[in-house]
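Appendix C reproduces, verbatim, an entry submitted by the partner laboratory led by Prof. M.T., so that reviewers can inspect both the input and the predicted structure.
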Amino acid sequence: MFTSDQKKILALSSLGGALEFYDFIIFVFLAKTIGELFFPSSNQIASLMATLAVFAIGYLARPLGGILFGHFGDKFSRKKAFINTVLLMAVPTFLIGCLPTYHSIGIGASILLVTLRLLQGLSVGGEIPGAIVFAAETVMEKRRGFATGLILFGINMGLLAGSFVGAMVTHQLSSDQLMSWGWRIPFFIGGLLGVVSYFMRKQLNETPAFQLLQTARNKVKLPIKEIFVRHPHKFLQGVTITALEATIISILFLFMPTYLATFFHYPLAKLLELNTLSILIFTVPVLLTSYLSDKIGRKKLLFIGVIFFSIFVYPLFMLFHSQHFPMVVIVTSLCGLFASCVAGVFPCTTAELFPTHVRYSGMAICYNVGFGIVGGLTPLIATWLIGYSGNLLSPSWILMCFAILSFIALLFMRETYKTALE
């Protein structure tokens, strides 16, 4: 299926993406604890919103990281951009684990936390789009969907690892131990793994497509300008599909444990364990849906996921009111299963929208506007919606909204699964 060199590139890209995404999302799995340590407040919702705002800041920095690394990757080197992102993640992650808390140095602790989150966001803004572009440009066209699906599989494994570590420290440690020192462990692990990822990335070579681009000297001065001037419709299509995936991950896997614990009073430790299972149910089918996208097309699978979240997500969220934990298992499992129809297909679909000379920038901008702005603000907006509307099911409105927008975008998007890269 793949040559030995292609397997090596895909394995290193996938594993590196897993390690880096673990570093970034472990923050939200400990949101409740971090809120109490860095933003103490007598108002539970205010403390949680402050923590989620810091999480959103990390996401909001991602578009800038995408622009910077995308420009560098399109103009000079895919490989160097891809390598440098991982160090920019590893160091801030480790330093978060070293931070003094609000009770030690006051507001200075909050400021330091925000600064390190910004650096993390810059890193992820270039790393994940780079991994997807590496995969898409490395393999033959009839395997592109599966290759990029492997990258998402690796990234989701990072999400799974973050959920697992969060569940373990929450379950194995007492509340006092978790508040005192236990919350630091996941950040130390992530920082050290980031260094490992850096040395793994150094083994990669430039992609064949970029090598051809260098030979042809077909480069533009400002790739980001080229995208908005010559490919605005492709940008809108890519952002819309990516935003749906971002809201799915943000609500179903990042926000869900804190959401159910805070507003429905399910036990957090049990929810984190369930979240690990839900991510696994979401992750494994990504291999199948990405494989099928090379056989039957990207749009058909995307439509399945889009229709599910447009119609069924609100009725499923209503089951949370039952206070019956097996219902939570059913809802999260079903959502995770249908989410794989989007997750396994959107990376390759977005990468295929843009020509080689602006592909890294195009992928980075779409990915980071979707995940950085939409995904980053989703937990914060979901919490605000609950407080404003009084409706505990209002987070599902966000999923429904972006599913409907994606349906419209897909109607105008051309099928790309049998086409060569431009």
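The chain is about 85% helix and 0% strand. Additional entries are available on request from the coordinating office.
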